[in-house]
Every structure is written in structure tokens, then in C-alpha cells.
Design a protein that fits this description.
single chain, about 120 residues, mainly beta, seven-stranded mixed sheet, four-stranded antiparallel sheet
Length: about 120
């Protein structure tokens, strides 16, 4: 059982930055493909970014390309978010898949409880 914990959410003004962290309680995420997802009120959950466990390849939703960066360090996974917009407001979840490569939402094995990001002036 992998317990994922997200942190780093909060209230930020448009144009600001936040860094989200995803950690596994008592374990490392080095051998897991990790995805960041978000769900805004009244909307479906969408994948924002993913990093695979083999070569560290990454991918991003078109809506966040050039603004968000996913990375790994010391067994954790981070999502650096810059130039934030009000439409980035959502609960952000990290999810883990025991695989070399990222697949879709249905392929994720474990989910965190989420951290709220609010972008507002």
C-alpha cells in the first residue's frame, strides 16, 4: 500500500507561483510513474502532467505547457507552477502507477487526498 501526501497548495494571486510536493509515507517514489491531476469545481478531473520512472520523461497538458514543470528529487515529485491563472484553481492530486511509463487516469494505482490551489486577487 502506497500512501501519497500532497502539500504546497494555497492561495496565490494571478501571475504568482506555487510548488506542490508529492511524497510517499515511508517510501520513495523513484520506481513509480507519477501523475499530477486536478479537478476544478463542476469539472472533470484532468491530468496536468506526468513523469515516468525510467528515463524521467515528462508530459504536460496543453493548458499548462510552458508554465508548469514536473520533477523528481530525493524520492519525491514536485510540480512547479508559475504564471498562475484563475482557471488553474482546483484541487490537485498526485497519483502513482507502478510502471516505467505514464498511462492515463485509469492506470493509476494510488491517489493522494489532494491539495487545494486557489488563484485569485
Amino acid at each position: 500500500q502506497l500512501q501519497l501526501v500532497e502539500s504546497g497548495g494555497g492561495l496565490v494571486q494571478p501571475g504568482g507561483s506555487l510548488r506542490l510536493s508529492c511524497a510517499a509515507s515511508g517510501s520513495t517514489l523513484d520506481y513509480w510513474a507519477i501523475g499530477w491531476f486536478r479537478q476544478a469545481p463542476g469539472k472533470d478531473r484532468e491530468r496536468v502532467s506526468c513523469i515516468d520512472s525510467s528515463e524521467g520523461r515528462t508530459n504536460y497538458a496543453d493548458s499548462v505547457k510552458g508554465r508548469f514543470t514536473i520533477s523528481r528529487d530525493n524520492g519525491k515529485v514536485y510540480l512547479q507552477m508559475t504564471s498562475l491563472k484563475p482557471e488553474d484553481t482546483a484541487v490537485y492530486y498526485c497519483a502513482a502507477e507502478y510502471s516505467y511509463y505514464c498511462s492515463g487516469e485509469a492506470g493509476m494505482d494510488y491517489w493522494g487526498k489532494g491539495t487545494l490551489v486557489t488563484v485569485s486577487s
